[in-house]
Design goal:
With about 475 residues, the chain is α/β, with parallel strands linked by helices. It folds into 2 domains: about 200 residues, Aspartate Aminotransferase, domain 1 (Alpha-Beta Complex), CATH 3.90.1150; about 280 residues, Aspartate Aminotransferase, domain 2 (3-Layer(aba) Sandwich), CATH 3.40.640. About 40% of the residues lie in helices and about 15% in strands. The protein contains 16 helices and 17 strands. It has a 7-stranded mixed sheet, sandwiched between helices. A 4-stranded mixed sheet has the order 1-2-3-15. It has a 4-stranded antiparallel sheet with strand order 13-14-17-16. α3 runs antiparallel to α13, α9 packs parallel to α10 and α15 packs across α16. The two termini are about 30 Å apart. The N terminus is likely disordered. The structure holds pyridoxal-5'-phosphate. The site of pyridoxal-5'-phosphate has 16 residues, from α5. The site of pyridoxal-5'-phosphate (PLP) has 16 residues, from α5. It holds the Pfam family Aminotran_3. Keywords: Pyridoxal phosphate. InterPro entries: Aminotrans_3 (IPR005814), Aminotrans_3_PPA_site (IPR049704), PyrdxlP-dep_Trfase (IPR015424), PyrdxlP-dep_Trfase_major (IPR015421), PyrdxlP-dep_Trfase_small (IPR015422). This is Aminotransferase.
Length: about 475
């Protein structure tokens, strides 16, 4: 899209809303902070300083305590301030703080790979650790291309992803993403050979007369048709988030969708790359989100991130199926990609401590059980509200989509910032939630995302939901009062 054309102008006007990346702080909203050297996300709005974090609570410099009901961006899993993790990090720091992976490895990295891939679950055989979800996506894309390159299928050059998805912010990861507000300004720099098919987003896109199965079949046909347009022998991979995260707000695919997708990919030997950076590592109530898509729905490559280190370390990973590893074994025997800080010992030891704790305390199971509680509370308390269109999610990963009318599912004007307003009110009332905009189509739509740490209690959830309801009610009142002016 060029800057001059009409469609992009629409989105450009919109892309820089405060909610493009979620949070909007209430502190010093418009104060210029030229006295600070940090390039914050906003030049006009300085974020609150957090001086202390413990369990599900953040303590601000002002002394206020906030319940972290979104784990940052669905990052915090075991809660903040865990001393067992602190001790593991310190102990690793004292033993080995850094070695280059070209020549060395550490038990921290080996053990982390082992705890995730012990027994080769679903044929996943190897783990590659990097510092962020975006880097993991770039590594996954290169690995997928290298796999075919070494097999002699060098004509495979296309990647197919989905609209309304997010895969990261580096040039590669952003190219496959379609979160429009986050990518439009950089369009001329992005990679070619990438196309996007429809999202699996039943609330907005399943037609009224369609059954779920018919909707799935329509999406499957679209994917098959897209592969044929490109020539299936020219396609490297199809990419998708099993449960779409920040872009649309915790949207799982309709039943049967990933089964159909897997079958179509298998038919043409196109790789299936699942991006579980946000929804993986237990967040949806199973260690891998794809496990809930039915037997045999197994990716060739999966990326993990946020929940891996639970916020204690900047770490993400690529998990690779035996099929791909065997491909490299039969070829150069190398992965032609690397970074200075890959498998960083401190990050790996820290994430290992987090994962040990998740396992020992059965936190993934807990996440699933508490998810049932949270779902019930959200449906009971918010389901009938006039601007609540849809409540969806799994485990400790729930999205609430706001619409102008329940019947039409029409979105509010972006300028209204419905999601951000709810987030701000909730924050004022002591609960942090993650707002999103452009939910429906990259331009319009509003949601908030709830992703509490897996350790929340039923009482915590009741408090969180009560605050979200109060925040919503306040915004509803504001909007109804001002309706004539909107
Ligand atoms: C956050 C996210 C990424 C990017 O991860 P970063 O660590 O921010 O680079 C990629 N994919 C999904 C689904 C994400 O939610």
């Amino acid at each position: 899209m060029a800057f001059g054309d009409k469609t992009s102008n629409l989105a450009i006007d919109h892309y820089a809303t405060p909610s493009t990346y979620g949070f909007q702080s209430t502190a010093a909203q418009t104060k210029q902070h030229t006295d600070h050297a940090m390039l914050h996300r906003s030049l006009t709005c300085k974020p609150d300083t957090v001086s202390h974090a413990s369990s599900i609570y953040l303590t601000l410099e002002s002394g206020r305590t906030i319940i972290d009901a979104c784990g940052g961006a669905a990052v915090t899993s075991i809660g903040h301030g865990n001393e067992e993790v602190h001790a593991a990090a310190l102990s690793q720091m004292k033993r080995v703080s850094y070695v280059h992976t070209g020549a060395y490895t550490t038990t921290a990295a080996e053990d982390l790979a082992h705890i995730i891939l012990d027994g080769n679950p679903y044929g996943l055989e190897k783990a590659f650790f990097v510092g962020s979800g975006s880097e993991a996506m770039d590594a996954a894309l290169k690995l997928a291309r290298q796999y075919f390159y070494e097999k002699g299928e060098k004509e495979r050059r296309f990647l197919v992803a989905r609209k309304q998805s997010y895969h990261g912010n580096t040039i590669g990861a952003m190219s496959v993403s379609s979160n429009l507000p986050r990518k439009i300004p950089y369009e001329p720099l992005l990679l070619p050979n990438i196309s996007h098919v429809s999202p699996a987003y039943a609330y907005q896109y399943k037609l009224d007369f369609e059954t779920e199965a018919q909707y799935v079949s329509r999406l499957a046909t679209e994917l098959d048709t897209e592969f044929h347009r490109l020539g299936p022998q020219n396609v490297i991979a199809f990419l998708a988030e099993p449960v779409v995260g920040a872009t649309t707000g915790c949207v799982p695919a309709p039943p049967g969708y990933f089964r159909a997708v897997r079958d179509i990919c298998t038919k043409y030997d196109i790789l299936l790359i699942l991006d579980e950076v946000m929804c993986g590592m237990g967040r949806t109530g199973s260690l891998f989100a794809f496990e809930q898509e039915g037997e045999g729905v197994v990716p060739d490559i999966i990326t993990i991130g946020k929940g891996l280190g639970g916020g204690y370390a900047p770490i993400a990973g690529v998990l690779v199926h035996k099929k791909i590893v065997d491909g490299l074994r039969a070829g150069t025997g190398m992965f032609n990609h690397g970074q200075t800080y890959q498998a960083h010992p401190l990050n790996c030891a820290t994430a290992l401590a987090v994962q040990k704790l998740v396992k020992r305390e059965g936190l993934v199971g807990r996440c699933k059980r508490m998810g049932v509680v949270l779902e019930r509370m959200l449906r009971d308390k918010l389901g009938d509200k006039m601007y609540v269109g849809d409540i969806r999610g799994r485990g400790m990963f729930w999205g609430i989509e706001f619409v102008r009318g329940k019947g039409t599912k029409e979105a509010f004007e972006p300028g209204l910032e419905f999601g951000v307003r709810v987030q701000r009110k909730a924050f004022d009332l002591g609960v942090a939630v993650y707002p999103g905009s452009a939910t429906r189509d990259g331009i319009k739509g509003d949601h908030i995302l709830l992703a509490p740490p897996y350790i929340v209690t039923e009482g915590d959830l009741a408090t969180i939901v009560k605050v979200v309801v109060d925040a919503y009610d306040a915004v509803e009142r504001e909007i109804r009062t001002n309706r004539a002016r909107i």
